[in-house]
Design brief:
Blueprint lengths: L1 H11 L2 H14 L5 H12 L3 H13 L4 H13 L3 H13 L5 H13 L3 H14 L4 H13 L3 H14 L4 H10 L9 H10 L3 H17 L3 H19 L3 H15 L17 E6 L5 H9 L4 E3 L5 H11 L13 H7 L4 H13 L8 E4 L8 H7 L4 E6 L2 H9 L16 H21 L4 E5 H6 L1 H11 L42 H13 L5
Parallel strand pairs: 1-3, 1-4, 2-3, 4-5
């Protein structure tokens, strides 16, 4: 049978045979969905996403089966067409299939676009259909953690480790799920797992888990040793050189610093409903997002790639055709000088709209790296509000250095080397000075330490800057039930506290090279 032949060829990786068999299906039954679907899957397996999408769409148009909708949603998500991906995923979710893999695919798309509550239904169905599949259970555990179901998440991670004791992802996720104590921790088990780990990725994540739990229980010397080994391995794996980020900072400064007068912004889109929360990672951006989204007029849209992707898309139209695959690089910044401000603002709002629930009139975009895009935001969205978190430089550097960010993200590659992190902070600081010179007062510089010291005063200042009336609910941000998909999830579900202040002091000797270098740059810790 051509259907079985095509599917078997796909499983075996014989794409030419799959294409021939699927082609015969289309020729014989052009009104049936399966041939188009399998042709699309073959194109996707070959890496031709843009070619695959219309083929799978043709299959959906001929039947609307959940498997076809799920794969269409996945392809659209990979193509960064998030609004269409969400629509396809929700259609598939409404007619949830019995196939566990399709359920997991639906959940992954929903999670990727930030709809973690909806993803739970799909992930639970996947685990119910195949309870022994570790990947399916991991996805469910992560969704439980993001949505505050901590006990359920812990139970799933433990089940995974029963089946796969060296699973680095589960060990690390369990370590950061909550704060460990001297009498309740996994340090001994992690040590045994590290000794048994063969795969580099497992060893890497187990080391990060060990470093985190050892810090929790107060063994800072051992924590730093594991962290140093893990970070060195990660930097080597990424092949990172600080010159990569330095070139981006140089290009942004060259693009925007040509005049002391602010560029004209009157031709931008409105964007009054957008609130950008930016800054170095691990400086309180998630906390401020929770405060603002506790206001009845504000919803949290997540860490959106909407502005970076809008800039990339429009800059590509003005490039020499040699556009790189990186979302942001010096060439993209240079090409972006020709972008029309209004077109950029409108492109951003369309992309951001796909991540909104539209239950409230305002929304937050909490991508920390948007501090690189403040010039674009100021020009393209003249009514948007911008808040930049500032934290003690040494606490910022330490908190960046000790966290394992998305392992393949180019945004945070600097963080796996102490001195690279210090250099990155210095360029961030310099860039923020430039934005303030060009757009005085446009960005609220909000101190994490000040927010902790006087929560109500700084919250009132924050709301005023964002054009929001005072609301007492903003002081109870820890009661906010929306999902949190960042390393700060555990912290922001607790009331305001001083636990995050001066954390770097416990590692003062090890961090001295960074502190001394910053002092030489005129930045005091």
């Amino acid at each position: 049978m051509p259907v079985q032949d095509a599917r078997a060829a796909l499983v075996q990786g014989d794409l030419q045979a799959a294409i021939k068999a699927a082609g015969r299906l289309v020729e014989a039954s052009p009104d049936q969905a399966e041939g188009f679907f399998l042709l699309g899957m073959a194109a996707a397996e070959a890496g031709h996403i843009t070619r695959a999408i219309p083929l799978v769409q043709a299959a959906v148009d001929r039947g609307g089966e959940s498997e076809h909708l799920a794969q269409l949603a996945k392809l659209l998500s990979l193509a960064r067409r998030d609004g269409e991906a969400a629509a396809a995923a929700h259609r598939a979710l409404a007619n949830l299939p019995t196939d566990p893999l399709t359920c997991d695919t639906i959940g992954c798309v929903l999670a990727r676009i930030g709809d973690h509550e909806a993803s739970l239904t799909a992930f639970r169905a996947a685990v119910s259909g195949d309870p022994h599949n570790v990947s399916f259970r991991y996805n469910l555990a992560a969704a439980c953690g993001f949505t505050g179901r901590v006990d359920e998440a812990r139970s799933h991670y433990e089940t995974i480790l029963t089946k796969d004791p060296i699973n680095g992802r589960a060990h690390y996720a369990l370590a950061i799920l909550s704060r460990q104590s001297a009498d309740r921790n996994h340090v001994a088990r992690l040590g045994s797992a590290l000794d048994a780990a063969v795969a580099p990725d497992n060893a890497l994540r187990i080391r990060y888990a060990l470093a985190k739990e050892l810090e929790d229980v107060g063994d800072t010397a051992a924590s730093f040793r594991h962290l140093s080994v893990a970070n060195a391995a990660q930097k080597s794996a990424l092949g990172y050189d600080f010159a990569q980020d330095e070139a981006i900072f140089d290009a942004i400064e060259a693009a925007f610093a040509g005049s002391r007068s602010p560029p004209v912004a009157a031709d931008g889109a409105d964007g009054a409903n957008a609130i950008f929360i930016v800054g170095m990672p691990r400086t309180g951006t998630t906390l401020v997002d929770r405060i603002l989204s506790s206001h009845p007029e504000v919803e949290a849209a997540g860490e959106l790639q909407a502005m970076p992707l809008a800039v990339k898309e429009l800059a590509a139209r003005h490039s020499d055709g040699a556009s790189s695959r990186r979302v942001l690089d010096a060439a993209t910044v240079a090409a972006s000088r020709a972008i029309d401000h209004r077109s950029l603002g409108e492109a951003y709002l369309v992309r951001a709209d796909a991540h909104r629930r539209h239950t409230r009139p305002r929304f937050t975009d909490k991508l920390p790296a948007n501090f690189l895009y403040i010039g674009y935001i100021a020009q393209a969205l003249p009514e948007a509000r911008i808040v930049c978190l500032r934290r003690n430089p040494m606490d910022t550097i330490w908190s960046n250095y000790k966290n394992l960010f998305a392992s393949q993200s180019a945004y945070y590659a600097y963080s796996y080397d102490l001195m690279d992190t210090a250099r990155y902070f210095a360029r961030f600081d310099r860039l923020m000075v430039m934005w303030e010179r060009l757009w005085p007062g446009r960005v609220l510089q909000l101190s994490y330490e000040s927010l902790v010291a006087d929560q109500e005063r700084e919250t009132r200042r924050l709301l005023a800057h964002c054009g929001l009336d005072w609301n007492e609910a903003c002081l109870s941000f820890h009661e906010n039930r929306t999902a949190v998909a960042t390393p700060s999830a555990a912290q922001v579900r607790r009331p305001m506290n001083r636990d995050g202040l001066e954390k770097w002091r416990a590692y003062e000797a090890a961090l001295e090279p960074a502190r001394s270098w910053l002092a030489g740059q005129g930045i005091s810790g």
